[in-house]
User: Fold this.
Amino acid sequence: MQIKTADDLARMRDAGRVVRAVLDTLVAAAVPGVSTSELDRIAESRTRELGAVPSFKGYLGYPASVCISVNEEVVHGIPSEKRLLRDGDVVGLDFGAVVGGFHGDAAETVLVGRASPEAERLVAATRAALAAGVAAARAGGRVGDIGAAVQRSAESAGFSVVREFVGHGIGRKLHEPPQVPNFGEPGTGAWLRPGLVLAIEPMLNAGLPGIRTLEDGWTAVTEDGSLSAHFEHTVAITDGGPEILTRMGT
Ligand code: MF3
Ligand code: CO
Assistant:
């Protein structure tokens, strides 16, 4: 596991700020009638304006700058000219950028127009599950504390946790050890130390936890067709507690 220096952390804060700015732009642009490809172009141009480079484009052959996952899509949805957002859609926006050699990574799920009460509950519960995971990201704790906190929060709200995708260490590489599952047992797994930076990213389904991947090789969807939501922050573990590098207002 890569422990960041004070200098590394300063650069990761810059990356986190860029990711937050681009996500805020995308959230504002996610209105009925916009295509997910248009959102991808907005993400890439805003990123370049800010002097950064999108992390996902070309990563393992991924073809776009942002992952946009609508309704029953869980994560890794590929932007398309044909996919126009509609009133009531549940839209996951997942974005990463590199600044000064360090990555930031974050995701938000937004409701387009008027959403169903179930969609609102799912999105609120996923946001809360991320907050619970972040609160458990403390020096002296273990990686399993984070997963246990996320799982407990999600399941107590009546939603299920996706097992196939996990959070991750992040730094000079988008994905570094350790893996950060959104389920597990407290007091297990790697020790959390100051200078460790993690991307914590719960994915919650309204129905069963199972997923499958579409023929495009990327888009993960719920097996039962139920709605899914995803939130993510890049979080530094410090002596003073978790520092969210992709928080609003940083
Ligand atoms: N936030 C996701 C992750 O950290 C997005 C990766 S998409 C990819 O794994 F295209 F870059 F693979
Ligand atoms: Co991530």
